[in-house]
Amino acid sequence: YSGDSMTASAAPIPATPIVTLTALSSSSLNVSWMTVIGASGYEIYRSTTKYGIYAMIKTLVGTNFTNVGLISGKSYYYKVRAYRMVGTVKVYSSYSSITSAQPLPATPTIKTNLISSTSVEISWAKISGITYYDLYENDVKIATITNTSQTSYVQTGLNIGLNYSYFLIARNNNLSSVKSNISTILTVLQ
User: Fold this and answer.
1) Alpha-carbon span 13 to 7, nearest angstrom
2) Model's pTM, two decimal places?
């Protein structure tokens, strides 16, 4: 026999987190993942371009983080890695796949103005960072407005003596179908 080798030790590398993003509001996203067995903590990295520079924005022990102060209509890209403490050294997992999302568009505010006994104008303030608006009358979509600088729509052919309720949803289809909360519902009596 030879002499014994020197003692060596190693810690298993943690598994790679699988990240999910959820838009919470017009200025926040939630970053979450399943617990990685044996992980001591996690590091969250963010960029504004997929292949850009990623900055570490948070180190935490838990498995979800709400990123606030974001800009509606802007895309954010995230990756997460787990680590295990071995003495004073961090042993890292691989980075998760890059995941992206946008905060929700701002919630529209609408106004109505009777033009005649059979028509009404619905107007709203312009919302930045969206690709189109959906306008609803009595829960039925009546128009998709793709010109995002357009801030009004005239509905004609209304019947005297009936109630008409309107609401607007702002949408963004750049990454996925991201939509705002519905505007307040306004009812018009013709």
Assistant:
1) 20
2) 0.75
